[in-house]
Amino acid sequence: MPVATTEQYAAMLDKAKQHAFAYPAINVSSSSTINAVLQGLTEAGSDGIIQVTTGGADFFAGQSVKNRAGGAIAFARFVTEVAKAYPITVALHTDHCPKDALDGFVFPLLDASEEEVRAGRAPLFQSHMWDGSSVPLEENLEIAKQILPRTHALGQVLEVEIGVVGGEEDGVSHEINDQLYTTLDDAIATVEALGLGEQGRYMAALTFGNVHGVYKPGNVQLRPELLGEIQAGIASKYGTDAKPLDLVFHGGSGSTDEEIAEAVRNGVIKMNIDTDTQYAYTRSVAGSMFSGYDGVLKVDGEVGNKKAYDPRAWGKAAESAMAARVVSATQQLGSAGWSGK
């Protein structure tokens, strides 16, 4: 199926919220990892979200040049073409974009989508993230207020981060401390600034102890019940339905099934998957190299085995390994089997 239209993406998010599941939003950095995501979503019968960071976009453009906006556009056009052959629907998203990267990443991508729409075509992306976690909340929301009208005019969804996700991802890093927990006052300030959809749809990455990267159980204290408390507080203050906010779960590696399930029950409709799929892909490559070293290397003057060192050989195995982790994510989040329903 083609990449989702903005209307289809909105319907996807509505369906997830109505039926209490979440979509995996998987970071990619190459055509091979894109194919792995499409394979995994298809095997699971799940729609999903494919996303790219600033660093991922840099890699798409080529490591010897600085053209992350061009890399992100290349990513979007590649997925848009190859996704037509798969029986599931995907949306395209740009992940963490801090303040110093807006001019070189999100803003030119909005320009490009506006140009597409003026030409009678669909925007290149269905959603974008502005990551204001490293600036004061007031400034974070002020910048979000400037971006939201542009995404709204394109039918896109804006993602904002309210609070701080610890750890590091593509150069955006934060300490692990009490700032990892969004407060109800933070959420109220967000609604006061951005509304509840009337100014444009947005998703909020509220933080409840989340940490990017790999951590062992017990290193941080996740409190997914905090999301329910914030949802209830907003509903009470503004007289809305029980879960007024569309929520995003960042930094989920190492979370238990119950922690993920509780976050989804409390309104999470998108969960980012990056570390685990990176590892699944690379672990397969390492296995291919170590177990077949005498084929992939020309050892002791031998000629090796072209069928072993052909990148397609170990690349296909790596894609399938990453696809399996994608399937697992859809099962954890409850999106498996929902495509087409």
Detailed description of the structure:
The structure is a single chain. The protein is α/β, with parallel strands linked by helices and 341 residues long. It has a single domain, classed as TIM Barrel (Alpha-Beta Barrel). The chain contains 13 helices and ten strands. It has helices at 6-19, 31-44, 54-61, 68-82, 106-118, 137-153, 184-194, 225-238, 257-265, 275-291, 293-296, 306-309, 311-333; strands spanning 23-27, 48-52, 90-94, 127-130, 157-162, 167-169, 172-174, 202-206, 247-249, 268-273. The strands form two sheets. The protein has an eight-stranded parallel β-sheet with strand order 8-5-4-3-2-1-10-9, with helices on both faces. The longest helix is centred in the last third of the chain and has 23 residues, at 311-333. The chain is globular, with a radius of gyration of 20 Å. One of its GO terms (biological process) is glycolytic process.
Summarize, please.
The active site is at 95 (proton donor). It is an enzyme of class 4 (lyase). With 341 residues, the chain is α/β, with parallel strands linked by helices.
